[in-house]
Amino acid sequence: MVDYLIVGAGLFGATVARGLMDSGKSCLVIDRRHEIGGNCATTRLNGVVVHQYGPHIFHTNSAEIWRFAQRYCEFQAYTNTPKARTKSGLYSLPFNMHTFEEFWGITDPEAARKKIYREEAKPRPVNLEEKAVAMVGRELYEEFILGYTLKQWGRDPRDLPPSIIGRIPVRFTYDNNYYDHIYQGIPKDGYSALVANLLSGAEILLGIDYLLDRSRLDKMARHVIYTGSLDALCDFRFGRLPYRSITFDTQYMPQENFQSHAVINCCSLDEPHTRSTEHKHFSGKSSSCTYVTREIPCEYDGSNIPCYPINDHTNNELHAKYRSLVAGRERFSYGGRLAQYRYMDMDMVIAAAIKLAKKLNAKYA
Ligand code: UDP
């Protein structure tokens, strides 16, 4: 018998395992996939580190989380400066003076403000459209956000929560950095190497579906930490928690360079994908071939990948019902992006996992 069974070998499961093993506990980590790393898993193809489930750039304001991550892999500096392809051209993101100059030919920040803030912004935006128009004005909303959002979420932006767009900066300086965080980078050998190092010392079993064999698996450990969705854990008693899924279409190309940039957002409805990622540009290393992943959003049907929770009021309430259902369980904890039904950056995932490990280490000291 082990001290902990951890269901899910993603970043949350691996970080919590590390914290528990560092206190002398034994961990069995299982995953239904045949690989570790969850949705930040990477693979190396012809020397190129490929982000299999979309581009992941690690960024944080926390020196503690940054130092923690550095202990388990070498990072290379990387600043996320995506481009946006719209029906009229290729532009810089996030919204900043480069974008305004490229789009309107404006170099004066006051002139840019005047262009953007022509429509009176709603003081308390209640949906994504209102929030986006308040942030960048209607013209940029229609060019950069409307089409992308319709594809990404499969819903009208007026039916989506404003929080989704709130994480994109708008600046009146020439600064293309997508994030406002102090620390930013990508593990040199990929996220799967980071997760493998975090899991060092754990017993790992892959290709095992906890939900299909839970009574036997539960008996193997003193405590279970579950990182999957709570609706599945509770046999969908109150119905399914909706997620948005993505089909990741990765192509090998026998050429040195395809799009000259790591990440290009595709904002127009003329192309089905939302993002095109050419992985080699994350490292800047030369190679004679290249790999490009296009992301095509789709509905989550229970068998494809649950990528983004859809955090509107109804779904959050549904998640709260599941939370109360599992709240009293003995020798059971849960956490991570899926179980919390929250959009979480990787630093948030690590912070939450460290917190849970500390809590459990104190409880079973
Ligand atoms: N978004 C958009 N156009 C873009 C980039 C983002 O409309 O070029 C909107 C879209 O609704 C998206 C949200 O902003 O879901 C958040 O974007 P972010 O880049 O944070 O998405 P992620 O990288 O997490 O998929």
**SS strand fraction:** 15-25%
Bound molecules: uridine-5'-diphosphate
- The largest sheet has its strands arranged as 8-7-13-14-15-12-16
What is the CA–CA distance across the termini? 18 Å
The major β-sheet equals: 7 strands, mixed
Count of beta strands: 17
Low-confidence stretches: none
Provide a descriptive summary of the structure in words:
- The protein is built from twelve helices and 17 strands.
- The strands form four sheets. Strands 8-7-13-14-15-12-16 form a seven-stranded mixed beta sheet. It has a five-stranded parallel beta sheet with strand order 10-2-1-11-17, with helices on one face. Strands 5-9-6 form a three-stranded antiparallel beta sheet.
- By secondary structure, the protein is α/β, with parallel strands linked by helices.
- The chain has helices at 11-21, 63-72, 97-104, 109-116, 128-153, 191-198, 214-218, 230-233, 280-283, 313-326, 337-340, 346-363; strands at 2-7, 27-31, 42-45, 48-51, 58-60, 75-77, 83-86, 89-92, 183-187, 203-206, 221-226, 243-253, 263-266, 275-278, 290-299, 308-309, 332-334.
- It is globular.
- A hairpin with a 2-residue loop joins strand 7 (83-86) and strand 8.
- Helix 1 runs parallel beside helix 12.
- Uridine-5'-diphosphate binds next to helix 5.
- The site of uridine-5'-diphosphate has 13 residues, from helix 5.
